[in-house]
User: What shape does this take?
Amino acid sequence: MPEADPPLAENCQRCGSAAIRIFRGGTSSPRACRGAKCVRTNSSILLTMKIKVDTIAIFGDKPFLKQTAKALKLLNSKCPVIYESVVNTHLGVIKQASRSRIKVTAKPPTFYVGRKTAYYSLKWYACAIVHDAYHSKQYADYKKKHRKVPVNIYFSPEAELDCIKKELRVAEKLKLPKRDIDFKKSLDGSYIYWKKKDW
Assistant: This one.
């Protein structure tokens, strides 16, 4: 789901590395840096690492990096055209976060991923990556022909339904369980479900 707000970010006051505030509501006073890049939250400092898969930089803890790399590998093997033309072209960063959303105006476009999206299932996560990459594509395609991009181009029920429709094609290729496909088909693009769930 696209995010209209700027990404929450700041630098670690000790090591100077980029840190993502992955829980809303502010951060606590900084603890002693452990000499590695860190993600600071209002309750603790989580060590974060970075890897790169093709052109996409991934930030998060070790399990998140592994899960994200596996999801991208799955997309590349099962849906190579979509992977190359949409995911690898329109996503620059994937970051572990408290909830899932995409910042299409970031440079590069950044997909923030919540725990439930990343770990519900590998196929579900792969579909979510495609879905949000299409939101980024909506923005980029319009930007090529216009100076300003209205929010409704990438953040509206119509834009959401378009991404769901394209995501479903990938879901069928990945053989996502019927119950998950049926759920995606039931969505109307209104975001009501996503506001209630911390995905």
Summary: The first strand starts at residue 9 and ends at 11. The helical segments are 62-78, 80-90, 115-119, 122-143, 157-173, 178-186, 192-196. The radius of gyration is 17 Å.
